[in-house]
Write a structure and sequence with these properties.
- Helix content is 39%, strand content 28%.
- Strands 1-2-3-4-5 form a 5-stranded antiparallel beta sheet, covered by helices on one side.
- Helix 1 crosses helix 2.
- The radius of gyration is 26 Å and the shape is rod-shaped.
């Protein structure tokens, strides 16, 4: 498996620095391996820590939710009993939903990955209009 992250070289350099510092701090008589061996041991640990940190930073948020996550959030927010969405050619999703008391809604949903937000407009067949949004602060 090949990792291709933009800062990978920086972390390999940091691993080499840590290996050098560790190698220089320990008395040479206690070491049974070379500096290069220490770099080989520490580099994968640094890369693994970086990969874990990077994956945590790019988690799911309202701006990049999947269709199922969008449906669940809008259904919960509008208290809908049914929802059907499809990708909209103009972007986002469009579809319909229905409340428990039978009111139907025409839905238009957009996502903004930069603002990490999900916005919707719901036009009910009984005149109800709901504009709403969901985002992480």
């Amino acid at each position: 498996m090949r990792l291709s992250y933009p800062y990978l070289g920086m972390f390999v350099s940091a691993a080499r620095l840590i290996a050098d510092l560790t190698y220089n701090m320990l008395p040479v008589s206690q070491l049974s391996f070379e500096r290069n061996t220490m770099v080989r041991l520490i580099s994968p640990i640094c890369i693994l820590m970086f990969s874990i940190a990077l994956s945590g930073c790019q988690g799911s948020h309202p701006g990049n939710y999947s269709q199922q996550e969008v449906e669940a959030q809008v259904k919960k927010s509008l208290k809908l009993s049914e929802i059907q969405l499809a990708p909209d050619p103009a972007g986002g999703y469009s579809g319909s939903g229905k409340t428990a008391d039978g009111e139907g809604f025409k839905l238009k949903i957009s996502q903004d990955a930069v603002q990490k937000s999900l916005k919707w407009k719901a036009d009910g067949n009984r005149g109800t209009i709901e504009d709403g949004s969901f985002s992480y602060e």
